[in-house]
What does this fold into?
Amino acid sequence: MSQVEQQLEDLKEEITSELPSDISVSDVKYEGPELVVYTRDPKKFARNGDLIRKLASQLRKRITVRPDPDVLSRPDDAREEIMDVVPEEAGVTDLDFHADTGEVVVEAEKPGMVIGKHGSTLREITQQVGWTPEVVRTPPIESSTVSNVRNFLKQEREERRTILEKVGRQIHREEMSDEEWVRITTLGCCREVGRASFILSTPETRILIDCGDKPGSDDVPYLQVEEALGAGPSTIDAVVLTHAHLDHSALIPLLFKYGYDGPIYTTEPTRDLMGLLQLDYLDVAAKEGRTPPYDSEMVREAIKHTIPLEYGDVTDIAPDVKLTFHNAGHILGSAVSHFHIGDGLYNVAFSGDIHYTDTRLFNGAVNDFPRVETLVLESTYGGRNDYQTDQEDSERHLKKVINETYEEGGKVVIPSFAVGRSQEMMLVLEEAMRSGDIPTMPVHLDGMIWEATAIHTTYPEYLRDELRDRIFHEDENPFLAPQFNHIDGGEEERQDVADGDQCIVLSTSGMVTGGPIMSWLEHLGSDPDNTMVFVGYQAQGTLGRRIQNGWDEIPLNGRSRGKTLSLNMDVETVDGFSGHADRQGLMNFVKTMNPRPEKVLCVHGDESATQDLSSSLYHEHNIRTFAPKNLETFRFK
Amino acid sequence: MSQVEQQLEDLKEEITSELPSDISVSDVKYEGPELVVYTRDPKKFARNGDLIRKLASQLRKRITVRPDPDVLSRPDDAREEIMDVVPEEAGVTDLDFHADTGEVVVEAEKPGMVIGKHGSTLREITQQVGWTPEVVRTPPIESSTVSNVRNFLKQEREERRTILEKVGRQIHREEMSDEEWVRITTLGCCREVGRASFILSTPETRILIDCGDKPGSDDVPYLQVEEALGAGPSTIDAVVLTHAHLDHSALIPLLFKYGYDGPIYTTEPTRDLMGLLQLDYLDVAAKEGRTPPYDSEMVREAIKHTIPLEYGDVTDIAPDVKLTFHNAGHILGSAVSHFHIGDGLYNVAFSGDIHYTDTRLFNGAVNDFPRVETLVLESTYGGRNDYQTDQEDSERHLKKVINETYEEGGKVVIPSFAVGRSQEMMLVLEEAMRSGDIPTMPVHLDGMIWEATAIHTTYPEYLRDELRDRIFHEDENPFLAPQFNHIDGGEEERQDVADGDQCIVLSTSGMVTGGPIMSWLEHLGSDPDNTMVFVGYQAQGTLGRRIQNGWDEIPLNGRSRGKTLSLNMDVETVDGFSGHADRQGLMNFVKTMNPRPEKVLCVHGDESATQDLSSSLYHEHNIRTFAPKNLETFRFK
It folds into this structure.
């Protein structure tokens, strides 16, 4: 009997002895970080609402109870009973029964009403039918990403269970080493922005954190060095992804091409956004005639191996490592990743990309942990002069530009990144229209923005408190406001918009490097009454930056290749909508951190930004700070 | 044609065009770092004394010329002619002809007389016979180590040529990477003394520097981690050994057990001493009932793969790395190892163990380099109070103790390490007797001391200038002084010595942890007229330390197991004979370094010693200093 078999045998015995004698345990299994308890008495289990919580706290494990397949009622009967238990307002749109695990997936417009207060409705379902319900939200805006991911996972359910069981055994393997150390190796994003990638290692475990590309460059993380994947992909136990942006996620599918077959831990929205952005990454590469480093099959592998975690869940991901995600405030699902290593040995937090203060979309980043000795901190705006305009001033500026354009009968075009910036803009515009600060007019969303917004509406629990409350309690979802229009009719629709009344267009790409924004330039660029507003950073070498700098002869591509567009529209720049904490935000993140870390590694910023931030944190708080280079290894214990 | 073949083809063409038209080139080959040029006209080559030097400087390669085997004269004829050319006083003891390479190894008591002024006699030999002479010294004291190594290498000559050719191709391979970086990874001896081991790496090359054990502990270097041998032994291009002590060399044979089959670069005396000490390491393990990690076959593999370099030779050991050894003053053959990386990209020096000032045996360590950006510095005595007694005072103290013991009719027993300390003692005693400071009396050498001394006498060019001159020019070899007696008659001889007149005994082990010193304790320990003198560091937990601390009841082992010895002899400690620089020496090494390094890594000392030294060097010279932990990686470019 293997050591894990023995462990499960012992757990089964312990659980049996803890349970009332009329509740039987037929099997105990690991599935990823969860301990799954199969019982022939699921209804009795459910009746005793506190049992699972007590077991979990005693065994210090995440526990799921499932019915033994033998005792399941027929799905058709169960379906009826479930619809009886769940209030009609919950808006159940689908019930999906999985006899192999005794789970029923309930898709509903209002998942909260399927769950009930403290899970009371869920328990009632099990008491009635024995099946274990799992609830997912019906996207209020149809999202092909969300439905593709869900369908794919349904289809791969069996292989996924095999994966989860294997991962579960890995997580709960016996510790082999009697040494203790904790190390971080930098594989990218040090003294640069882009290709984020780190290895966190102990004698027992090696975790890869992020694996991104570098926009505007072919540089990738140093995966080939011995301490990365040089000794083979199986030397990595787990991958943790802090958020979906490509400079953190683009090369994760490549790991599977190399033969990695372990878990990816991330949040559920990050999983979906990651899929969306990676497929778009492949599309763009194909359009630009480049051979991408992997194909879409590998994106699916990545999704299949993803184990989603919620903010605040303390999760065993290795015998000596517990991972907890916390809101990072940067984009949907972005996570500050906290690692507790050993039994109180050491704690490391990776900030990922953060926004310290609240934005319209998200709460500010969490910086409150039970313990943190070392913080790995992004430094995008860590330079001594990287202060950003206050959001209120920014919004005032934006509204002024919109109003002026409106009065002249013009249209406003905002190039915008699909994920994050666009949804923030939507909230700003919806609020401004609702309060009458700007006239209510159509806001056209072009490119991937609509799809990204649909994903946002699928996961409202990841949004800012006030926004979430508004969606949940007041049933007022600003993303569903009628003025938002999805451009899904191609050039014809764009022509109609261009020929019509005043409006606002939000379109990708955010740096005017391709995508539908190029069409909008053609349609609206020559009219001096129109205004182009930049709300995001325009990198060196992009057309966006050139337009900002005053270029007014734009070479055209595609069907207008060879022609030149004379740009007569106004060009404005409104700062302050960044998804990143500015210099003050980064300083405050550390200053108000509880507890204060002993060491800070300043990464994900150019050389001067990381060094400025490192030096200021050292002088202000007298903590040991570093501005690492790529390819260094720091040992902390 | 492979890239190296093409390179050799080009070199052959270039050399042919450079040579006078009557000198033919029949082949050009790499053997390790050397370029070997085969010619059908060796005599003409030799007549033109400057040709090789010119070629070497033009091609920037080390060049050896050998005769094409077709044109060789018969060994019997050659032998006679060689004996005619070489003066009789050279004391030729052996001539060994190797028709495969056209080399003749000349073993002589006075190699200098075989070489002649600026190599004139060597050239004359070739002019006469065509063969290429290689000269080695006949050990003035017979050394089984030296003769075993020489015989073994003779026997493995063919395989060794294969190895050298393979290494040569590796060294001269085309560079693959267009990135540039230089890194040092610490695998041992950080914040501790023992298990010295580092990896120096570039995108192109990975070099392991030292691989030792940790005395008094089972700890070994972290060879198993991914960035060491985790991705396989073939990820290491070369091993460099700074000196033979086991805390630097013990685990080198283990590399070959793991499958390493690349070169070891070290000095010739280090190769021989390494063999001696590694075999002793296996013996001691066997005697103590431990299973050693490798067997003697692996020691032979290590010797077979050793490429000896001389101090000052700048040697290509990889496409982007040149290695130069410099005297380190610590033990015979010990080397400060200087790495020049890239074409002027970066320079790193590893001090190994050093003695900064001259001792009787060795010149002080070299600290003069064309360039050094980073120095990796030993810190054994780097603590703020680690000052040692001046050698003159130490010698005065020692002589006083000897004289006092002599007057009381007693004998002096000095526990001593076989390599280094013993030979220093021999020089002190010989000088003191010659000058009349102490009476001339027998000095008995027991344990491995005699053998280690024999190795010293084989390589006088590695000794201190004055000592070397005395041996070469005045024909006065102090190690051959008649009062030195090799105890080779076992217990019987020891009994005779114990029963005889006053004398001095130098015996291993240096910390009284076993070996013949245990016998001497039994023979001489109970007599209060005798004196035991400690001249070296006695580690915690050793019997030596206990005796120093006043223990006078010594439990016996071996044939006297169970009995106890009452120690009545005097016990004295004379400091100041260390092979390590003391605090002042280490500070001076850096202070007088030319040029001053930008960064210093303080290693090979306990935590406080490395931190004290690091902090003092920083404050005194304002250079960046570190006291690394094991398992860290520093990037310098």
